[in-house]
Amino acid sequence: MSVHPVRSRSADRRVRVQGRPVDAYPALPPEAERGSFRRVTVTGEEVLGRPCQKVTGFGAPELSALIDDMFLTMHVAEGAGLAANQVGAGLRLFVYDCLDDDGVRHVGHLANPVLSVPGPQDRRLVDEFEGCLSVPGAAKVVPRTDRAVVRGFDKDGAPLVIEGTGYFARCLQHETDHLSGRTYLDRLTGRDRRDALRQMTDRQEGVFAGRAERLARLGRA
Q1: Of 51, 96, 118, 197, which residue is least crowded by CB atoms under 10 Å?
Q2: What mean pLDDT do residues 77-90 have?
Q3: What is the pLDDT of residues 31-64, one digit of tens each?
Q4: What is the structure's pLDDT at 121?
Q5: What gap in Å lies between CA 61 and CA 104, rounded to an integer?
Q6: Number of domain units in the chain
Q7: Is residue 1 in a domain?
């Protein structure tokens, strides 16, 4: 998921890491410092269109390395969230670094997430522009509920419950969709989907160039 244009991250905000408040946190998370950049898959690729498999290798170095790579890739691509199938790994895993509507920064990862949203009588749907790193350069209005809870596990198998409101709730829903083989394009009407794909065609080369420049600035080219 793309970072909201008016919600850039910084190191001096209130921060919750894996759902817990911390006193301070760097703009570039430690995972990203350790990670390597991976190519971001693009809509139409098979791995994005099929449900992901459950994570089973908790505590394995390979899982930690994948999470590190996903964090760096997300930051280079200026994302608020990134699912494993967006770097070609068909696992039920996503990472996030996203602000909610109160300015709280949420950072973490979640394996085997199960999403809960309010029922029809209690939910409030919000129409807001949404982008995706796998649909580079495009953005369309997508209705999402303004609250969400996701239950899952960290990389060592410890249980997690992550609650989101506002834009962070949107991020949790967007990333969980990815793990079921869906992008936000699947929530659009035919006309809006075609328009989003036209946007992508017109803008993706500029998006890719920007990613390459940011990667070079980090000394990872």
Answers
A1: 51
A2: 98
A3: 999 999 999 999 999 999 999 999 999 999 999 9
A4: 73
A5: 30
A6: 1
A7: no
Is 8 domain-assigned?
no
- CB hemisphere CA count around 120 (13 angstroms): 0
Mean pLDDT of 115-143: 92
Closest by CA position to 153, among listed 21, 58, 83: 58
Active-site residues: which are they?
Answer: 175
Is residue 41 included in any domain, yes or no? yes
d(CA 58, CA 21): 24
CATH of the domain at 181: 3.90.45.10
The predicted pLDDT at position 7 comes to 58
d(CA 199, CA 193): 10
Structure tokens at 91: 């696992």
Identity of residue 68? D
Angle at 111 between CA 110 and CA 113, to 5 degrees: 80
Question: Sign of the CA dihedral 181, 186, 104, 28?
Answer: positive
Q: What is the DSSP letter of 92?
A: S
Q: Is residue 122 part of a domain?
A: yes
Q: Determine the pLDDT at residue 34.
A: 97
Q: What is the pLDDT of residues 147-172, one digit of tens each?
A: 999 999 999 999 999 999 999 999 99
Q: Are 166 and 124 in contact (CB under 8 A)?
A: no
d(CA 18, CA 20): 6
- For position 10, what pLDDT does the model report? 58
Q: pTM to 2 decimals?
A: 0.94
Instruction: Answer yes or no: are the C-beta atoms of 29 and 15 closer than 8 Å.
Output: no
